[in-house]
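User: ok so my PI wants both of these folded by tonight, can you help

Assistant: No problem, let's get them done. Here's the first:
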Amino acid sequence: MLGRKALAVHRETGHRLGEARTLMALARAHRKTDSAAAELLRQQARDIFSDTGVPETEYEDPDW
């Protein structure tokens, strides 16, 4: 899956916002098929966004 490859690249290069965005995209992709995995990915993304100072209004998905 390309999302997992992107996640690995962001982690290897230390690109935290790219990592968070990719985690959020993976969470959305898993939302209908594996809600537990989706929630874990979403929480990981939210933690990174929060750690890097991104306001919640910038990354929260209103349709979640």
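One down. Here's the second:
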Amino acid sequence: MTRVWNPTVIGAPVGKYSHLAEVPAGRRQIHISGQVGTLADGRLAGPDAAGQTRQIFANIEQLLRSLGAGPADLVKLTSFVSGVSCLPGYYAARDEVYADWFPDGKYPAHSLAVVAALAKPELSVEIEGIVAVPE
């Protein structure tokens, strides 16, 4: 399990993330490429940021399971949201998933960037990550 914490030498996080995350000894890092909200057949889960974000987290969960890992093994996530108008949908879906994944409020490190566009115009959100799995 990844160790996460928030030192008191700086202000508390302004969102659902931890300032620091450590990969414990005996674990290796695996990087998850940017995931978009597509279903297994390649179709987009929906036209809106909330639907795409829910699907992205479902895809990440499947990738974690394929590694024998779970959300507690996430070290860092980076989210890219296409325009500020997509933020409410992203936050709503992320908060739903985080309530299930991190009920103790111990979130992985996280960065969020609002970008002008993603690889395809119909994409609203992309999320990449780093996971720590046993050797």
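The mean pLDDT is 96. The radius of gyration is 15 Å. Good luck tonight!
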